[in-house]
Amino acid sequence: MAEKFDVHAYVTDAIIAAMEASTAPWRQPWTGEKTGAAFPLRANGEAYRGINVIMLWLTAVQKGYASPYWFTFKQAKELGAHVRKGEKSTTVVYYGQAERESEDGEEVRFSFAKAYRVFNAEQIENLPPEYYIEKATEARDLGTAPDPTLEGFFANVGARIETSDEPQAYYHPQHDHIHMPPIATFHSANGYYATLAHKLTHWTGHSSRLDRLKKGRDRTAYAFEELIAEIGACMVCAHLGLVPDFEQSAAYVESWLRALKDDKRLIFTAASEAQKAYDLITQRAERNPSTLAA
């Protein structure tokens, strides 16, 4: 009997291999590069979410794909297109729910995850032209002056952001505020807003919001929260057309690798929590569309 495919182990092992090669899939400065849109898209234009964003980012960077669109073999065929011979698929994860009968005869609903395979538009011939359009934009050259659009975006989220000459950026969970040094002290405005995105992701974990930050956390829990904040901040930066700012030390990365090797479901949880943080931030910001980055 064939061994059952373990989707959690497969995905985690791929991410561990990338991190050990210093190419963590959420760490790619896609803005201004030829890696397509910030977020990978399904054939119908719907954005992928959670762990699938990370997996498709990883493949797009490794292969240099510019198109954001991904198709199953069947979806390509339905459009009169075909996957080129020899092309290899990328594994993504489908989450669903089903029912089964328990030992006492009751119907019980349960969640499951299973893998399926997709191909980037650049692996497929004869798709409609719009699927091949390069979606990348030029990198934002912001200098060190505040950007009114980005200022509006972050202000509309509603976090209390304090500025002083103290040369540290941090989120204070007890006082529920973010502290930032003046933007003029940063080498670029991009660096300022990318750092703010990281701190804002921590802010989403407050008990009055996503309730992710628990008291008495150990070192492993702190490292896990930093992993969530880094992935979440990269999602926010992708949304705004910014290059993410990577401030994590080698010690954090080592902790992540150790934790991922011990728990094959951990990266799924981190990606899910990062997605929730990103959703909260963008939903709050989009209450006023005029604050969105172009």
Automatic annotation (TrEMBL):
Its EC number is 2.7.7.-. Keywords: Nucleotidyltransferase, Transferase. Residues 149-272 form the Polyvalent protein metallopeptidase domain. Residues 6-119 form the N-terminal domain. It holds the Pfam family MPTase-PolyVal. The keyword Nucleotidyltransferase applies. InterPro entries: Antirestriction_ArdC, ArdC_N, MPTase-PolyVal. It comes from the Bacteria. GO terms for molecular function: nucleotidyltransferase activity; single-stranded DNA binding. This is DNA primase TraC. It comes from Pseudogemmobacter humi. The lineage of its organism: Bacteria, Pseudomonadati, Pseudomonadota, Alphaproteobacteria, Rhodobacterales. The gene is traC_2.
